[in-house]
Structures are given as C-alpha cells and as structure tokens.
C-alpha cells in the first residue's frame, strides 16, 4: 500500500490540483510512490477547519499519513471592519507543554503534534480553540485522539507548516473592482503586514515544536515583482506561485526522509517483468 501525503488547507490548497497547481505537481513528483490527497477548503480559517479534523484524520486510522502539509492563515488574517471580517480569527498562542501564562497573539493555530521518540501518531490538535468548542479539554488543548503505531512499512509522520503567502494589496483592490466595479471595496480586506504577523508566528510555532515550516511569505518577497509574478488576484497563486510552493515542499520533504528519488515504486517497473514468468517480479514486500 502506498504511503499517503495529505494536503490540508484553505483555497490555496483546494485549488492546488488545477492545471499547474502545486498539488498536482507534487502528485506527479511522487507518482507510483505515494498518494497525494487534497483536503482543501476554500474560505476556511483555522477555527472552522477544527471541525474537519476527525473526518480527515479519523480516530480509528491504523495507518496515519506519511506526511501532512498544513496551509492556513490567509483567511485568519482577514481584517476586522472590512468585508471579509467573518473569516478573521484571532487566537492565543499556547505553549507546548501547556504550563505557563502568556499574552494573546494572532496566529493560525492548527498544528499536528508528533511524538518523534515513540513512533506513535499522537494527535492532530488545535491549540487555542474557542472555549465552547466540543473538542476543547479543560487545559485549553483540544485533540482528536490517537491511533495505533505505524506499521514497519511506514515511518514517523512528517508534518510541514506552510505560512500564508504575502498579500498584494493593490492586486486585491484591482480584483474586487473587476468583480464589483464602483461598488468594490475602497480598502483591501487583507494587508501584507497582517499576513506577515501570522507567517512569523507560524514559523516560531514550528520552531518551538521542532517540526518543519515553509516561510512562503518571506520566500516569495525575495523575488522582484512578486506581486504579479506569484499572485493572480493579490492572494491566490499563479502557476509561478504554485511552482514555488511545489519546490519548497519537495525540498523540505527531501531534506527530511521523504525524498521521491529514494522511494521505491509500489509495484515493479515494467522492465523488471519477465514476459515468460511475470509472477516472479511480483513476489516482493509491500512498501
């Protein structure tokens, strides 16, 4: 059975299997080696995504994903007082372990916590979820539970946080005007400054938990003309922007242990099959 790679996020993930998308490119990179599953939900912030966790990462799973990307924050960073304010989500940073007091800071807050020392899938968790959430424990740390050990065919789950991309505020205004004309908003519903706040805290969280992060917000702004080169409407990705995400995900996966070049095919390459005795080629151990 092929290992699975789950892409969990908002519209930037949902759209990732469009032509030139980073998800489809990732599926091509890992063709016949891993199944890439898209779990993207346009418009979702991290609070709403909380309610999907038990469905995407079921409690009774005996083989959790080999890797998971978590790509939220673009909607959490929508500004209050503007037309996308219902998507805004300001939550609190909760240290891990949960034992000290701390000031509130805004940050996309879905995170996968993996106990590297035990080869157990510990939990996919929400930190700082709303107090009235049915998933929240008295400690304020809400988990979706645990699953069995990984089988010998599946190593520890690789978790990668991806920050929201930068925001081209002029691009957002132009896009709104193309849709609504003179009725379009006067000010953009998102700013690059606020996206940067969420991005920085996402990177810090990954560092604190010892997991991987891709600072897409900073990476893209290192290229001249990033506003039009990487963003189609000031927020979502162009094919070039998708290529950046694909390149970064492959880089992080490869630097960890999930290099496509080092993974075997799920079944024999056709060149290994003897036309007169094909059965011999299929007498192999599963991935």
TrEMBL record:
Gene Ontology terms for molecular function: hydrolase activity, acting on ester bonds
InterPro entries, per the entry:
Iah1-like, SGNH_hydro, SGNH_hydro_sf
The SGNH hydrolase-type esterase domain sits at 7-243
Q: Name one Pfam family in it.
A: Lipase_GDSL_2
Q: What is this protein called?
A: SGNH hydrolase-type esterase domain-containing protein
* Naturally occurring in which organism (per UniProt): Populus alba
In the record, what lineage is assigned to the organism producing the protein? Eukaryota, Viridiplantae, Streptophyta, Embryophyta, Tracheophyta
